[in-house]
Amino acid sequence: LCSDISPLLKDPGAFRTLIDLLEDHLRASFPQIDFIVGERLDSRGFLIGPPLAQRLGIGFVPIRKKGKLPGPTESVSYTLEYGKAELEIQSDAVELGQKVVIVDDLLATGGTMCAACELMKRLKAEVLECLVIIELKLLKGSEKLKSIPFYSLLQYD
């Protein structure tokens, strides 16, 4: 399946090349990034954020499903193709005006990515870009992001 990144994760050389490509893109595009933000621990995209943040010498901030993070949190509910869900971030994860890039493995309908952007907006962070490995263009998820810059390595119709 073209939307499965599991083979990339199994192959250390391919995974290194993937992180190289994402690192090169971010270094060329943004002179300053404070944090890489990753969505949901159940998402394979969560596996991309920490090594990318480490390469860039910056921190990684997790966004999780409701009830998974300790301490005070900010939450947002959103609609999925098959129902509703909620995402949370720790209330002190980012500070006013900090610059973040949100990463995930795949953009489909855009609901989860929009929810992550809403959490960043509530914490008053600046979303520099939403970055994914694969975009399923037929589902038009990137159109929901409106004015937020979006980048995908691969696009499939």
From TrEMBL:
Its main location: cytoplasm. The keyword Cytoplasm applies. It is found in: Cytoplasm. Pathway: Purine metabolism; AMP biosynthesis via salvage pathway; AMP from adenine: step 1/1. Its EC number is 2.4.2.7. The keyword DNA repair does not apply. Keywords: Acetylation, Cytoplasm, Glycosyltransferase, Phosphoprotein, Purine salvage, Transferase. It comes from the Eukaryota. One of its GO terms (biological process) is adenine salvage. Coiled coil: none annotated. One of its GO terms (cellular component) is cytoplasm. GO terms for molecular function: adenine binding; adenine phosphoribosyltransferase activity; AMP binding. It catalyses: AMP + diphosphate = 5-phospho-alpha-D-ribose 1-diphosphate + adenine. Residues 9-135 form the Phosphoribosyltransferase domain. InterPro entries: PRTase-like, PRTase_dom, UPRTase/APRTase. It is an enzyme of class 2 (transferase). Gene3D superfamilies: 3.40.50.2020. Homodimer. Belongs to the purine/pyrimidine phosphoribosyltransferase family. Catalyzes a salvage reaction resulting in the formation of AMP, that is energically less costly than de novo synthesis. This is Adenine phosphoribosyltransferase. It comes from Stercorarius parasiticus (Parasitic jaeger).
